[in-house]
Write a structure and sequence with these properties.
The protein is α/β, with parallel strands linked by helices. It has two domains: 256 residues, Rossmann fold (3-Layer(aba) Sandwich); 99 residues, Orthogonal Bundle (Rna Polymerase Sigma Factor, Chain: A). 35% of the residues lie in helices and 15% in strands. The chain is built from eleven helices and 14 strands. The strands form four sheets. It has an eight-stranded mixed β-sheet, sandwiched between helices. The chain has a two-stranded antiparallel ribbon with strand order 2-3. Helix 10 links the parallel strand 13 and strand 14. Helix 1 crosses helix 2. The chain starts with 12 loop residues before the first strand and ends with a helix.
Length: 376
């Protein structure tokens, strides 16, 4: 039974964009780009009520509602829907799978038209600007010249920031949650270990596993387990598991003895059914290199055409702590960009931006309600 406030049954659509090819930041041209996306709500006659959702590292186009025959809601279903913080009675919401992903948008597992085989590691290294260009291509396809807002958390928030810096004319507002403008050495280290787990798996086959009938399943599972540890706070782990035994009492062995070990094993195995190892390599590397404010002129275009910002951090997020958000705030405020910032109390760590936290959702709702009034 579909709960109240859901957008209901939805379908992922696909479209081919860039008939003349997409030139990536690296200079390599992708001859064609397929994009998977979903929409919720109704686009008004003036086409002024559109919101673009940018997903995080392992997300996809299915942000809200339910696919037919599947009782699992979209990854941000608690915030998108009629009467919810991103209210689809007011807003027309668009969410697409990211370039380099593996859920319907062109990525390293896609077929290279030049060879008839998967790109593999011949796929170009990507940049945050490449993600934004594909989002803009989809916007043109949908006939939307300006979004009332772009919204995203974590890697999604980085995309929103890049979009606002490069093409402020496309956006009225930018909502950035639990994100960073420059990863710390510790953050890069976590991603590096995850990538090494994948690449050192014998099934990786120098990145050619898609054509050799193997897969780095163990490595990808370990990468997910490691990453998942960074998404939760110590408090969250303690509250969920403590030192509980998986089977009633601790047996003293090297297998899965603690409940937390079982949980991580489950997360790693579950990940294998929905994510590609090469996409994991490519997307985490984009995050490592992201450093837009390293360019002294990064804010020039935005200063000439300001976008309003809402930035949100969470007290227990140690992966992208509040200091990461404050750094973005400082740059924006120094450039006199209209900026609102709120730190939300939460015990759940980095994943807080995905959860139904009353203060968080109330903040988003109030900000977007104000935007709706101004548009009206």
């Amino acid at each position: 039974m579909i709960p109240e406030g859901s957008v209901g049954v939805v379908e992922t659509q696909t479209v081919r964009l860039f008939d003349d090819g997409l030139t990536t930041r690296s200079g390599i041209v992708l001859p064609e780009v397929q994009v998977a996306y979903e929409t919720y709500g109704t686009l008004n006659e003036a086409r002024s009520n559109a919101i673009y959702i940018c997903h995080a590292l392992t997300g996809d186009a299915h942000a809200a509602g339910y696919h037919a025959g599947d009782d699992r809601p979209g990854w941000w279903d608690n915030i998108i829907g009629p009467g919810r913080a991103i209210d689809t009675d007011t807003w027309f919401v668009v969410c697409s799978n990211i370039l380099g992903g593996c859920q319907g948008t062109t990525g390293p597992a896609s077929i290279n038209p030049a060879t008839g085989e998967p790109y593999g590691t011949d796929f170009p290294l990507l940049d945050m600007t490449d993600f934004v260009e594909v989002h803009r291509g989809l916007a043109r396809h949908l006939g939307i010249t300006k979004f009332a807002a772009a919204v995203g958390g974590s890697l999604g928030g980085m995309q929103v920031l890049q979009w606002a810096l490069d093409h402020p004319e496309d956006l009225g507002r930018a909502l950035v949650f639990a994100a960073s403008s420059r990863l710390t050495a510790q953050n890069i280290a976590f991603s590096a270990v995850g990538r090494q787990a994948i690449m050192r798996d014998s099934g990786f086959n120098e990145g050619k596993f898609l054509t050799r009938g193997t897969a780095p399943r163990k490595g990808l599972s370990v990468a997910r387990m490691l990453a998942h540890i960074t998404y939760l706070s110590e408090h969250a782990f303690q509250e969920k598991f403590g030192r509980s035994a998986q089977r009633g009492e601790l047996a003293g062995n090297f297998g899965i003895d603690f409940a937390v070990e079982s949980y991580l094993e489950y997360q790693g195995e579950r990940f294998l059914s929905r994510f590609d190892a090469l996409s994991y390599l490519y997307l985490t590397r984009v995050m490592d290199y992201f450093d837009p404010f390293a360019d002294a002129r990064a804010l020039d275009t935005l200063k000439a055409d300001p976008v309003r910002f809402l930035l949100v951090s969470f007290t227990s997020d140690w992966r992208f702590s509040t200091e990461h958000t404050r750094r973005i705030v400082r740059h924006l405020e120094e450039a006199r960009i209209p900026t609102s910032f709120r730190e939300i109390q939460s015990t759940w760590g980095h994943d807080s931006f995905l959860l139904d936290l009353p203060d968080y959702h109330a903040t988003v709702r109030a900000y977007l309600d104000k935007a709706a009034e101004e548009i009206a």
